[in-house]
Each structure stands twice: as structure tokens, then as C-alpha cells.
TrEMBL record:
The active site is at residue 178. Its EC number is 3.7.1.2. InterPro entries: Fumarylacetoacetase (IPR005959), Fumarylacetoacetase-like_C (IPR011234), Fumarylacetoacetase_C_sf (IPR036663), Fumarylacetoacetase_N (IPR015377), Fumarylacetoacetase_N_sf (IPR036462). One of its GO terms (biological process) is L-tyrosine catabolic process. Residues 1-25, 357-399 are annotated as: Disordered. It comes from Micromonas pusilla (strain CCMP1545). This is fumarylacetoacetase.
Length: 506
């Protein structure tokens, strides 16, 4: 049996006699005020660009890293050179199987599997390694000797890959406002919410194979579309390509055995972390195909996620009251003793004509069709996505919402998903569904709602004066998100970016 980690929950807890520990600070100069301060430390997978002159690390194509300011800390190097960094003590104070796997893994899956105690120990150790003021008796990347030049890369020198091989992807429909708005458009206000929606978190199984990393170009899909009221159809490029403002939830821990549900009280222990998620949708294809079994090809062509996974531990200060479940009392297996939401602000921006640098060969779909194998193997089956922020986003968001508005929480999603005995595995991805805001607190989270299915156009706010009913070729969609700690520290998610390319010729 693996020994339990003994690392303190705070890098200052075991060494400082002060009742109020000093605020966490790091020696990385631009971390404070960025998306990635020392209070965040999200995990990701990256490769170093080929022109950066690597030596012995050339053999490792994809590596696990942690974002700190505009730098990436190479955990694969820390694992392979561990004794040089922390004396005769392992990074987590025990021989964690995931840590031993890191140098060759190039994926977060082993860490996701390790469980909550290891996650907390890792976070404490990483904060100690990156601290501005070394803790007495605890090694630091700059003390007693400086090794930062060997394990800290500039973000501009790396490219991001998928954080893990997503085993399964399930997308939920957890926003009351989104479900009500869409139901009103399709069925009328008196029948906006189906009866089961208030009783359980509704979801459908998506395609893990088409979940791609931010920076992957999205080829406009073709599909079967209803031409007119006579039910004549055509196979054509979608004219109603949409974004969906979502958050992804990565499942962690050992998972549950087939046939054994996860109890609601234990569900939060199975949440490793969160990412931004855009579940691209072809609304005209969806309208024709979704009855009676729900979305299929209208959504399975692409789902984009941000490359950095913000841990549940980093968002503990973002806990807030969740919306009252006043439509119908949930059954006991969905009732939370510690019901809470996460206060994470979310925005979508659209830039017109952004595909000047996105040539057709960069589309993930086209590369796969040509039979080419992307660098880094399956975990990096995406277009090249720099870890650096994309160009400054358009000035005004098209959509603005918050994760706290979800009617159904991630814990309830996990409890429902496993309620019949379905087994979740580390690296599985759950999507929240489009997160729309209540009136006066933001906007809807997709163009379907914003434009009333194309009945009106909205300004995209990129300074060009352009308006949209739905996305056009060349549009770049940028999703951002951030929480704020009690001390006012920003916990950012980075960006989730995709550019729309024209449909392929038949």
C-alpha cells in the first residue's frame, strides 16, 4: 500500500511560528497579478519548441508542467532530477507512483489518479519550491543552489498539448437559464423545461476523440439540414455554427468500480480540477437530428478545452452559495450536505478575420484525414498551441456569465452519472453545458440565445463594427475565466481559443 503524504497543507504551516503566515509570494517576477500566481499553479502538458536548443531533455517530447506567471515549471525534470532539488526527500515526501511515471508519461492521468491527499501534498511542495522566501529546512529552487535555469521555461518557448488522454466525455445541461431560454424558443414558454430537468442533471455522452486543445483550428462541419417545412433535407456546411460557454470538470481519484455508485458526500473527492470548454455546435444540424435521442453529429465534430487545469484546491476561496433548487426537491442521492458553487467569472470574445495565420493545413480534422501523426503522440493531437497568451482579446465580450449560476453542481453531476453504477475513470471529462446568466447578472452563453436563433445580430465588440447572427469563417472565439481569492488574488484559467476555417469541399 502506498504511504500517505505527510506534506503540510500550507508550505508555511510546519515552519512558521506566526499565527498569521505571510502571504504567499514567489520569486518569479511577473506571477503576481497574472492568471497564474503562486496561489494557482495549474497543471498542463507541454513540449519545448524545437529551436530552443535542448540537450538531454530532447528525448522527452511531452512533459508535465505547472504555470507560474509567464513561466512553465517542468515537473518531468523535477522528477528525474529529484535528489538534486530536494536533498534526499522525494517531492511528495513519499514514492508516489504518478511521480515516478512523470518523465515518460507526458500526461496528467497518473497525477489525476493519485487522489486528494497527493494533490494537496504536491501543491504544498510546489509552493515551497517556488516561494520568494525559502522556508527553513525546506529546499527551494533557488536555495541552497539555483536550478531555475534548468526547469523554468518561458511560455513563449513551449507549445501546449492535451492535458491527458480523455477517456470519456459527458456534456451536461446544468444551467437553468440556458435550458429555459432554449426550451422557450423550441417549445414555448409554458413548456420550456422538460419535467425531468428539475429532477436530475440531464446529460449526454459526447466524443472524447474530438476533444482538442486550445489553438486547434475548427473546420466548419457539413451535416444533414432541414431545408423547409416539407421535411426535405440537404447535406451542406452548417450556416449556424455556434460557441458554447462552458467549464470542463476533470475526474480524479481511482474512480469507482463498475456497479458501485459514488455517493454525493464523496463526489467532490473525485474532482481533480477545471478547465474552460467550448462545445462547438451546428445548430441547424442539431435542430433536425436531436429528436428523440439528443445531439449527435451536430456536436461531436469538435470540443475545445483550455490547456491548463486549475485544481479544485486552487479554487477553495471561490466557494459561494449555489442557486436554490426550488423547482423540485431532489431525491436523497442528489442532496448535498455541503452544497456550494464556485464564483468564476467567464467571458467570450469574438474577433473577425482572425484566420490570416491559420492556414487550412493547421486544422486538426484535416491533419488526421491526411494520416499524419502529430508530434508527441496521442496526447498532442492538436494544432500547435503556444502557452503564451493569444493577441490582446477584443475590447468587449460577446457573452459574460459565471460558474456560480449552475443549478446542478459538479458533485451532483458525478452522483447522477454513477447512480446506475457507471464507472468513472481518472481523466474523464464532464462539461457543464452552456452557462447562461440570469437577467441583470450577465448574458446568455451562446449565439443561439443571444441572437434568438439568428433572428437578430449582435455586435462582436472587436473594434471592427462587425455583427454576427452565427459564427463566420475566420472568426476567432476566445473564452477566458478567473476567480478571486479572499486576499484579492486572481486565479486565472488562461484562454480557450479556436479559429473557424471554411468547410471542406465535397
Amino acid at each position: 500500500m502506498e504511504p500517505e503524504p505527510t506534506e503540510p497543507t500550507s508550505p508555511y504551516a510546519a515552519s512558521s511560528p506566526r499565527a498569521d503566515p505571510a502571504p504567499l509570494e514567489t520569486f518569479v517576477p511577473d506571477a503576481a497579478g497574472s492568471d497564474f500566481p503562486i496561489q494557482n499553479l495549474p497543471y498542463g502538458v507541454f513540449v519545448v519548441k524545437p529551436d530552443r536548443g535542448l540537450s538531454k531533455l530532447d528525448a522527452v517530447r511531452a512533459r508535465v508542467g505547472v504555470a507560474i506567471g509567464s513561466r512553465v515549471l517542468d515537473l518531468s525534470w523535477l522528477a528525474s532530477e529529484d535528489l538534486h532539488v530536494v536533498g534526499d526527500r522525494k517531492l511528495c515526501e513519499h514514492k508516489s507512483p504518478w511521480l515516478l511515471d512523470v518523465p515518460g508519461a507526458g500526461t496528467l492521468t497518473p497525477l489525476m489518479r493519485a487522489g486528494a491527499k497527493t494533490w494537496r501534498a504536491m501543491r504544498a511542495r510546489l509552493q515551497a519550491l517556488l516561494a520568494l522566501h525559502p522556508i527553513p529546512g525546506v529546499r527551494n529552487l533557488r536555495a541552497p543552489y539555483d536550478v531555475t535555469g534548468m526547469c523554468l521555461y518561458k511560455m513563449e518557448d513551449v507549445e501546449m498539448r492535451m492535458p491527458c488522454d480523455v477517456g470519456d466525455f459527458t456534456d451536461f445541461y446544468a444551467s437553468r437559464e440556458h435550458a429555459t431560454n432554449v426550451g422557450t424558443m423550441f417549445r414555448g414558454a409554458s413548456n420550456a423545461l422538460n419535467e425531468n430537468w428539475a429532477a436530475l442533471p440531464v446529460g449526454y455522452h459526447g466524443r472524447a476523440s474530438s476533444v482538442v486543445c486550445s489553438g486547434t483550428n475548427i473546420v466548419r462541419p457539413r451535416g444533414q439540414i432541414l431545408k423547409d417545412a416539407s421535411s426535405r433535407t440537404t447535406y451542406a456546411p452548417t450556416a449556424k455554427l455556434d460557441f458554447e460557454l462552458e467549464v470542463g470538470v476533470f475526474v480524479g481519484g481511482a474512480g469507482n468500480e463498475l456497479g458501485v455508485p459514488i455517493k454525493i458526500a464523496d463526489a467532490s473527492e473525485h474532482v481533480f480540477g477545471y478547465c474552460l470548454l467550448n462545445d462547438w455546435s451546428a445548430r441547424d444540424v442539431q435542430r433536425w437530428e436531436y429528436v428523440p435521442l439528443g445531439p449527435f453529429a451536430s456536436k461531436s465534430f469538435a470540443t475545445t478545452i483550455s490547456p491548463w487545469v486549475v485544481t479544485a484546491l486552487a479554487l477553495e476561496d471561490a466557494r459561494c452559495a449555489a442557486p436554490a433548487q426550488d423547482l423540485r426537491k431532489p431525491l436523497p442521492y442528489l442532496v448535498e450536505d455541503d452544497r456550494h458553487a464556485l464564483d468564476v467569472s467567464l467571458e467570450v470574445r469574438v474577433r473577425a478575420n482572425a484566420n490570416a495565420n491559420a492556414n487550412a493545413s493547421g486544422g486538426a480534422g484535416r491533419r488526421r484525414e491526411s494520416g499524419e501523426t502529430p508530434p508527441g503522440g496521442a496526447a498532442s493531437e492538436t494544432a500547435s498551441a503556444s502557452a503564451s497568451p493569444s493577441p490582446p482579446p477584443p475590447r468587449a465580450p460577446v457573452a459574460r456569465s459565471n460558474l456560480r449560476h449552475l443549478y446542478w453542481t459538479p458533485a451532483q453531476m458525478i452522483a447522477q452519472h454513477t447512480s446506475t453504477g457507471c464507472n468513472l475513470r481518472p481523466g474523464d471529462l464532464l462539461g457543464t453545458g452552456t452557462i447562461s446568466a440570469p437577467k441583470g447578472e450577465g448574458t446568455p452563453g451562446c449565439l443561439l440565445e443571444l441572437t434568438e436563433d439568428g433572428a437578430r445580430r449582435v455586435a462582436i465588440g472587436d473594434g471592427s463594427g462587425a455583427t454576427r447572427a452565427y459564427l463566420e469563417d475566420g472568426d476567432e472565439v476566445v473564452i477566458t475565466g478567473a476567480a478571486v481569492t479572499r486576499e484579492g488574488v486572481r486565479i486565472g484559467f488562461g484562454t480557450c481559443v479556436g479559429v473557424v476555417l471554411p468547410a471542406l469541399d465535397e
